Amino acid sequence: MELYQLRYFLAVAETGNFTRAAEKYSISQPSLSQQIKNLERELGHKLFHRLGRRSVPTEAGQVFLDRVRRILLAVEDASKELKDSPTLERRIKVGAVPTLAPYLLPVLLERCRDQHPTLLIHTHEDFRPDLMRGVIDGDLDLAIIPQPVKDPRVFVEPLYTEPLLLVVGHRHPLATKASITARDLADEEFILLGHSSTLSLEIERFCGDHDFVPKLGHRCSQVSTVKALVALGSGISILPRIADRPDDRKSLVYRELSGRAPTREVVVVRHLLRYQSKGAELFLKVLREATSAFATANAATGIPSPPTGASPQPEEPRRTESGG
Q1: Closest by alpha carbon to 287, among 88, 89, 99, 107?
Q2: E strands along the chain, which residues?
Q3: CA distance 321 to 324
Q4: Pairing between β-strand 142-146 and β-strand 237-240 as defined by DSSP bridges
Q5: Alpha-carbon dihedral of residues 215, 221, 224, 227, nearest 10 degrees?
Q6: Contacts for 177-186 with beta carbons within 8 Å, 24 or more apart?
Q7: CA–CA gap between residue 46 and residue 66 (Å, rounded)
Q8: Residue 222 DSSP symbol
Q9: Three-state DSSP state, 25
Q10: Are 54 and 16 in contact (CB under 8 A)?
Q11: Higher pLDDT, 82 or 249
C-alpha cells in the first residue's frame, strides 16, 4: 500500500468521480482506476459503488475513508513539522581530545552561538581511542583529534599542523638557555598525560627518535595539572602551541626546540557512511573558518596562533586517506 494510492482513493471519495480525481493528479483515468483496483485487491474489500458516472464509498470504503483522512493528515503534519522545525538536524555531538577541548571548543561554541543560534551542540572530551569509538558507533557526529588515524570506516579531514613546545617553569635553567635541543631533555623529569593520550605517545616517540627514554616524574589526566606541576618545578613537559595561554606567562615559559622539532596534525573525523546532518555541516564550516587561521599563521611564522573571534574565509575541505 502506497501513499499515492491513498491520495487517489481520497480524491475519488471527495469528488465522487474517477475522471475528476484523475484530473486532480494529472494522470489518466484508467491508471487511477487500476490503482484503486490494486488497493481493493490488497484490502480484500470493494471500496466504491459505481453508480453510473458517480462513485460512492461502500461500507468498507467509508470505514477506510476515515482512516485514510487521518493517515494523510498525519503525514502532512509530519512534513510541515520537519520543514518548520528550527532545530531539526541541528543537534550534534562533537568530541575533542583534552589537549584541544579547553582551548578550541569554547571558541567554536561562541562562534556557533553567534552565527547559528539554533544549532545545539553537545561536547565530549576524551582521549582519541574513545572518541574514535564514539564516531564509529554513531554516538558522536564529529571528533577533533590528532593524527595518526588509520580506520577505514572514517573520513579524515586535515585542519592544521602545529608545533609541540617545551614547557618549563620560570626558574628552570632551560627557560633562559639560548638554544635547546632534544638531547638537553634527556636528563630531565617529564610530566605527561595518561597512557591513552596521543600527546604522550608522540612525546615518547620523539624522545625515542633522539635515542633516549623520557624519565617519567608524573602522570596527569588534565593539561591544567601538567602546567601546575611544571610551574612548581616538578619537571618539564611538551605541549601543543594551542595550550599556551596568556595567563601561563606568569609561571611558565614555552620554548621551541632546535633541530627536528615535534609537530602534530589536527584533523576532524566523521563516519564514512553515516548521513551528515545540516547541523554537522554548519559546525564544520565554523571549524574550518576558525582553524584556517592556524594554517595561515603557521605558514607565515612557523608557529600558529590560537583561534580568535575573527572569522577568516573558510577553506574547502580536503580529503585524505584514513590512515593519515
Answers
A1: 107
A2: 48-51, 54-57, 91-96, 120-125, 142-146, 154-169, 189-193, 215-220, 237-240, 252-255, 263-271
A3: 6
A4: unpaired
A5: 0
A6: 177/255, 179/258, 180/255, 180/256, 180/257, 180/258, 181/257, 181/258, 181/259, 182/206, 182/207, 182/209, 182/210, 182/257, 182/259, 182/260, 183/210, 183/212, 185/212, 185/214, 185/236, 186/210, 186/212
A7: 16
A8: S
A9: coil
A10: yes
A11: 249
Q: Where are the alpha helices (DSSP H) in 139-248?
A: 198-209, 223-232
Mean pLDDT over residues 107-114, rounded? 94
Q: Quick one: cell of 38?
A: 490494486
Is there a contact between 207 and 182 (Cβ–Cβ < 8 Å)? Answer: yes
pLDDT band at 311 (very low <50, low <70, confident <90, very high): very low
Please choose, from the candidates 65, 116, 52, the residue with its C-alpha nearest in 3D space to the C-alpha of residue 285: 116
CA 158 to chain centre: 13
What is the tens place of the pLDDT at every residue in 237-277?
A: 999 999 999 889 889 999 999 888 888 999 999 998 888 88
Q: Which three cell numbers stand for residue 228?
A: 601546575
Contact status, residue 220 vs residue 99, Cβ threshold 8 Å: no
- Ramachandran angles phi, psi of 83, nearest 5°: -75, -35
**3-state secondary structure at position 19:** helix
pLDDT digits (tens, 9 = 90+) for 184-238: 999 999 999 988 888 999 999 999 999 999 999 999 989 999 999 999 999 999 9
Alpha carbon separation from 122 to 82, 89, 90, 102, 170 (Å, rounded): 21, 13, 11, 14, 38
Q: Copy the grid coordinates of residue 125.
A: 572530551
